[in-house]
Amino acid sequence: MLVGHLSRCAPCRDYRRRLERIQNGARASSSPQVPAAYWESAIARLKLRIETPEARNRDPLPGRVPMSAAARRWAWAGAVSILAMGAGLYLLLSPPRLPVETYPLTLEETISRLYERIGDNIALEDEFASLLQASIRDQAGDEDGDVARLLYGNSSFIESLSDEEIQLLDSQLNRELKL
Known about the structure:
With 179 residues, the chain is mostly helical. The protein has a domain at 120-177. It contains ten helices and no strands.
């Protein structure tokens, strides 16, 4: 598979030739011979370089301006004060995060508040009743609009109604039957 690809792809053939040249050159070269005395004296030479006064005073990062301890402390104090100012500006300019107040209301509380606002207005009560009936139909999956069939044939539906919904249905029945 590789041989087939190399026979068709010139860039890959060139790449393989270069790798072979490097590999052949590495095999032909000999590793440098280091005398045994070099390794025996290496530790002593290293200690000598470390212990000389000029080596101790030499800066490990050439070109860097040496700083005294006091200058370093002032630099750190400046960095901390800039950080503190940044944090203060962030807190000052960011909008306050107020907790969101929620008012959990039950369906019964909501409907009773609506009835309080409706008061004695019959037209508004009729409109609200029709909206509530449409909601009941939607929940029950009734498309033909026969709420009576929903009420009398489905006991689990009746059990799921709230007191206000039952009162509304009762008032609608009383109104229709003129009781």
